[in-house]
Amino acid sequence: MSRTRLWAIARKELLQLKRDPRSLYLAFVLPLVLLLLFGYAISFDIRNIEIAVLDESLTQESRRLVEAFESSGYFNVAEYLERRADADVALSLGRAQLVLVIPPSYARDLASGRRAPVQLLLDGSDANTATIAQNYADAIVMGYSANVVAQGRRVVLPVTMESRVWYNETLESRNMIVPGLVAVIMSIIASMLTALTIAREWERGTMEQLAATPVHRLEVVIGKLLPYVAIGMFDVALACAVGVAVFDVPLRGNLLLLGVLTLLFLVGAFGLGIFISAALRSQVLATQVAMVATFLPVLLLSGFIFPIATMPLALRAVSYAVPARYYVTVTKGIFLKGVGLEVLWVDALAMVVFASVGLALAIGVFKKEIA
């Protein structure tokens, strides 16, 4: 391999990239736009849930229960209902996502020491919101019940549980989403960028000039790869900086380790793009195939949004072939947990394999000969 020829190919690719506004947009603008867009748009935090209250007790005790819901920060009392038939209207029209029904005997039951059941009606058309709202409501009622027991009977509860959350103490979903977004965005951008490289040579008729030179196909592939890997490293560094500065995501791990594993991931991702470009020889078709081959698997099977452990066995098996699965684990582990190679060595080994396979595919399918 000649260093001079390698640099000549890399410089040629940089010049082509500089003259192509679409590629410049993909390389420098789109990653930041996607990070900001998805970082603000995707959130699993559910707050300000609209609740309707049917208070048939109309006592000080029932008002305290409603105040416990309001002061939690998760619920807003949208309206007070007068009849039970109004509950169905409030839920069906979307004026409230759940209805709290306090029966007439509520205060009497509390005063006599009996169980005082209340009813919670939830709109199950959005199952995720309904489940989270139910968990919030259960926690509020349990806390309120503990206070009633402690204040009314002057006893200490026999069993108490004190929870402490590690790694994401505030349970903010953006702390989980932003590190995963880096993997998702770079998977898509990397394959789309390099999907244009070889195909562009064929469509512009410059492959004949390249074939007439003594440059080896290994030098062509690596030379075309180098500028994009450098751009990818810059994009990841920018995304990490934005994640920390804008979204306040903690970065507890080793930056050098993150850089090395990112380099492995990008080499494999860009190699896959060059493989698609060399195999199809059409910029439009290569871009479409790259998008399908990366976007859906990365979004659905990387563990970014949907936990892999809850997937069917067949999909869990397929997810092992998705490189972003390992990089998502790496980014979350380094950002949130601050773990090192002693924990991430399996994922690091998988990305070494991915980088090797991506390069091998790109070099194997690329031919200088003009058919």
Give a summary of the structure in a few sentences:
The chain has helices spanning 3-18, 21-41, 60-71, 85-92, 106-112, 127-153, 173-194, 197-204, 207-211, 217-245, 255-280, 283-301, 313-319, 323-337, 341-365, and strands at residues 49-55, 75-80, 98-102, 119-122. With 371 residues, it is mainly α. It has a 4-stranded mixed sheet with strand order 2-1-3-4, with helices on both faces.
Report, as a whole number of angstroms, the end-to-end distance.
25 Å
Broad structural category: mainly alpha
The coarse silhouette is: elongated
| Cα radius of gyration in angstroms | 28 Å
The ordered string of helix (H) and strand (E) elements is HHEHEHEHEHHHHHHHHHH
Could you characterize the architecture of this molecule?
- The chain has 371 residues and is mainly alpha-helical.
- It has 2 domains: 3-43 and 172-365, no CATH class; 49-153, abc type-2 transporter like fold.
- Helices cover 67% and strands 6% of the residues.
- It has helices at residues 3-18, 21-41, 60-71, 85-92, 106-112, 127-153, 173-194, 197-204, 207-211, 217-245, 255-280, 283-301, 313-319, 323-337, 341-365, and strands at residues 49-55, 75-80, 98-102, 119-122.
- A 4-stranded mixed sheet has the order 2-1-3-4, with helices on both faces.
- Helix 8 (197-204) runs parallel beside helix 11 (255-280) and helix 14 runs antiparallel to helix 15 (341-365).
- The protein starts with a helix and ends in a 6-residue tail after the last helix.
- The mean pLDDT is 85.
